[in-house]
Prior knowledge:
By secondary structure, this protein is α/β, with parallel strands linked by helices.
Amino acid sequence: MEIVEGDLAEIESCDAVLAAFTVPDEGTAMEAWYAHGLGKLVVAYTGGTPPHPWTAYVADVICDDLERAVLALTGQHAVD
């Protein structure tokens, strides 16, 4: 319980969440859902893994590249 409560408090205090969805993970999914519910910016990093429909629902931005995901947190875009 302590871990969950700590995670929730950290999500409440942040401006945005970078969620790594490179492998299925219930904890990451719940954190992204919670952040989405609070109206936080949710950036999903997939590492090239096709996003699950729920990931697409809660994420404001989906990136397969970590650098692009980090840039998305600041509203910037990577230059090709």
